[in-house]
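Lecture notes, part 5. Sequence design as translation. It can be helpful to think of inverse folding as translation between two languages: the language of shapes and the language of residues. The source text, in structure tokens, appears below.
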């Protein structure tokens, strides 16, 4: 691939993007409620002379057909979070209790920029570019919703899919890796049953508080005793709720668990173990009723294709230089992006864009320490540096696409 000259100077386009980014940041909308965001994205695309397909209520897609060649699908998520912004930025959220605390405003703005650049420089590429703006990543509902709302028949079948995420990593760098880069995530609500009684008469009860406590402890052995050292699994009990008063033994307890894994076999084993331990503890306690398991917020594994990651990494390294493009370590966060390529049966690559105080990272690196005081995604202080993150994220989308469409 030859270096695309049209990327040398995108300053005037970046002005448009900065304004757009700040606007989206000031007007965040929660998952599946991204109506104004989707309208704005649609009107920007229309303004660029591009057709807009509406998928469901808040999904938007544009297909840029440009002769023979492969079809590349690039995806950005567009939803925000129920977080009260505390960044102090002059373009902070204007919506009480809602914030773009995961940088999806940056993803959407970068993808709009990439679509504009590729559309305006059609002579530098050949093939089809699909820019897809996906709602509701945060609750793992958006990719599935777009598929249910007819995505696969609304667009040509892509050959490859690309996506990226801004991360608390040094600004000015891009991080790529093949294989699992983000974990599968599963949440489960477990209800166990006891027999309620007066707090002074425990012999008449089956105490679900003691039962739940025993389950919480025993669950810790899934990772520490059942998972092979070196294999990755996280089992977190995020909530444990039972009872309302000191002198009443309640009749049920509820546990909310979160599971993260990098391997589908490990994932299944962990889930089987959770159910086995809960059933076993219920049996041991003399629980009068079978426990129930309700799974929700289930994120698939993000497992980068080696071939696609190699192709994209090589193109990014050619363009940005080896000091910018580095090897990523897998993140324990999760994503629903892979639902899209998995549905089409196509390979994909997902990479990270550093977006925070590069100086701070450099100082920490020199001191041999690990930086821990950078606000992570979902923090009320999450504030990616527009420059250079927006330019790098935009160019990364273009360069990734041109690795296939550049001829
Ligand atoms: Zn997020
Ligand atoms: Zn995110």
């Amino acid at each position: 691939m030859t270096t695309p000259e049209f990327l040398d100077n995108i300053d005037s386009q970046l002005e448009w993007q900065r304004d757009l980014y700040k606007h989206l940041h000031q007007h965040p909308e929660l998952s599946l409620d991204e109506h104004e965001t989707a309208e704005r994205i649609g009107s920007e695309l229309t303004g660029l002379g591009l057709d807009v397909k509406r998928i469901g209520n808040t999904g938007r897609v544009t297909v840029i057909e440009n002769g023979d060649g492969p079809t590349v699908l690039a995806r950005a998520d567009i939803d925000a979070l129920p977080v009260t912004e505390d960044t102090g930025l002059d373009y902070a959220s204007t919506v009480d209790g809602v914030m773009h605390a995961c940088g999806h405003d940056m993803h959407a703005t970068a993808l709009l920029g990439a679509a504009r650049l590729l559309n305006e420089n059609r002579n530098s590429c050949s093939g089809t570019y699909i820019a897809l703006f996906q709602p509701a990543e945060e609750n793992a509902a958006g990719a599935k919703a777009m598929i249910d709302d007819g995505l696969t028949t609304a667009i040509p079948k892509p050959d490859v899919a690309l996506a990226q995420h801004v991360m608390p990593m040094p600004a000015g760098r891009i991080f790529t890796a093949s294989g699992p880069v983000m974990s599968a995530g599963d949440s489960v609500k477990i209800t166990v049953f006891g027999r309620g009684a007066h707090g002074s008469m425990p012999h008449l009860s089956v105490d679900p508080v003691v039962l739940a406590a025993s389950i919480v402890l025993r669950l810790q052995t899934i990772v520490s005793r059942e998972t092979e050292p070196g294999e990755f699994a996280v089992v977190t009990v995020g909530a444990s709720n039972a009872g309302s008063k000191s002198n009443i033994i309640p009749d049920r307890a509820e546990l909310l668990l979160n599971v993260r894994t990098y391997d589908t076999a490990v994932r299944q084993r962990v889930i089987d173990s959770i159910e086995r331990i809960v059933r076993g503890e219920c049996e041991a306690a003399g629980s009068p009723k079978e426990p129930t398991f309700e799974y929700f917020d289930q994120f698939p594994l993000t497992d980068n294709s080696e071939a696609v990651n190699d192709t994209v990494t090589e193109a990014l390294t050619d363009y940005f230089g080896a000091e910018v493009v580095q090897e990523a370590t897998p993140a324990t966060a999760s994503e629903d992006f892979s639902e899209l390529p998995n549905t089409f049966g196509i390979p994909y690559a997902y990479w990270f864009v550093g977006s925070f105080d590069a100086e701070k990272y450099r100082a920490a690196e020199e001191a041999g320490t690990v930086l821990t005081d950078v606000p992570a995604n979902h923090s009320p202080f999450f504030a990616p540096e527009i420059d250079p993150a927006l330019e790098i994220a935009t160019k990364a989308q273009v360069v990734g696409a041109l690795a296939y469409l550049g001829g």
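The translated text above is only one of many valid answers, since several sequences can fold into similar shapes. Residues 183-299 form a domain with the Alpha-Beta Plaits fold (CATH 3.30.70.360).
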